[in-house]
Amino acid sequence: MKLANNIKIIACQHIKSIVKPDERSDMSLPEISFIGRSNVGKSSLINRLLMKRIARTGSTPGVTKVINLYKVQYQYDNTKNSVVFSDFPGFGYARVSKKTYDEWKGLVETYFDSNRYIKLIAWVFDIRREMDHLDAMLHNWLKDKDYEHIFVLTKIDKMSKNDITIRKRGFLSIFNEERLFLFSSKDGTGREEILSYIVNTMASC
Ligand SMILES: Nc1nc2c(ncn2[C@@H]2O[C@H](COP(=O)(O)OP(=O)(O)O)[C@@H](O)[C@H]2O)c(=O)[nH]1
Ligand SMILES: [Mg+2]
Predict the structure, then answer these.
(1) How confident is the model at residue 205 (pLDDT cuts 50, 70, 90)?
(2) Spatial strand order in the sheet of 149-154
(3) What is the pLDDT, as a whole number, of residue 120?
(4) Nearest partner of 32 among 57, 17, 56, 49, judged by Cα
(5) Best of 17, 44, 67, 104 for a ligand 1 pocket test (most atoms within 8 Å of beta carbon)
(6) Cβ(33)–Cβ(118) under 8 Å?
(7) Model confidence over 2-33: pLDDT tens digits?
(8) What gap in Å lies between CA 135 and CA 125, rounded to an integer?
(9) Which of 113, 89, 118 is nearest to 101 (CA)?
(10) Ligand nearest to the CA of 44
(11) Of 59, 63, 133, nearest to 96 (Cα)?
(12) CA–CA separation, 146 vs 144, rounded Å?
C-alpha cells in the first residue's frame, strides 16, 4: 500500500447525532463507519485520526445510543475532498443480552443496508480481547454482505512487542495483512497507515 504521508485534515465538525438510520438525510458524501463493542477505542481512534478531541470518549452509561456523524475535509496530493465519519454505539462484553445485541445489530444492518454512501467499515477491536461468538457473527455478516472493511486492533501501547506479535499472528488467520492495523490512540502508532488506507479507498471509489 502506498503510504500517504502528505494527508492534511483541513477541518472537521460534528454534523449530528442520530438514533434512527433514516435520520442521516441525504448528504451525498462518501462515508466510513467505525463499529465495534463498547470501550474498544472507536471514538479515541476518530479523535487521533483527526487530531482533534471531537468524539466523546470514556463510558457514558445511561446515554441514549446514538450514531455521531462528523464531516471531515482533507487534502491529499493538492486535491481537497470531504468524507463523513460515523461513530457507532457499541455494546459490552459480559452478559450481553440477546435483546441488546439484536437492537444493535438491527441498527447497524438497517443503517448499512439503506446507506449507499458507505465505502468502508472500520471494525475496531481491543487487542487484549478474544473474539466471542458475537464477534464471529459480526465478521460473518461483513463477509456475507461483501462490505469493504478493515480490522483495527487498538490499545497496543498496553502490550509488550512480543505479545503484540503473537496476538497479531492469531488474527492473521482471519484477516489479510493489508486489512489489519495495529493502533494506539495514546501514541498515534498506526495513524498514518489507517489514514492512507482510507484515502486510497476513497480515491478508488
Ligand atoms: N492506553 C490506551 N487507551 C485507549 C486507547 N484507545 C482507547 N483508550 C481508552 O479506552 C477507553 C474507551 O475509549 P473510547 O474511545 O471511548 O471507546 P469506544 O466506546 O469504543 O468509543 C477510554 O478511557 C480511552 O481513553 C489506546 O489505544 N490506548
Ligand atoms: Mg465511543
Answers:
(1) confident
(2) 8-18, 67-76, 79-87, 31-35, 118-126, 149-154, 180-182
(3) 97
(4) 49
(5) 44
(6) yes
(7) 666 789 999 999 999 998 888 887 688 999 99
(8) 10
(9) 89
(10) 1
(11) 133
(12) 5
Please count the residues of the chain.
Answer: 205
Task: Kindly give the distance from the C-alpha atom of residue 78 to the centroid of ligand 2, in angstroms, as a whole number.
Answer: 32
pTM over 0.85: yes
Q: Hey, what CATH class is 8-203 in?
A: alpha beta
- How is residue 103 written as a grid cell? 437492537
Which residues face 76 on adjacent strands? 79
User: For 177, phi and psi rounded to 5 degrees?
Assistant: -50, -40
Ligand minimally distant from the alpha carbon of residue 39: 1
Q: What are the boundaries of each domain within the chain? A: 8-203
Q: Which residue has the cell 463477509?
A: 143
Mutate to test the pocket of ligand 1, among 91, 127, 135, 185 (most ligand atoms within 8 A of CB): 185
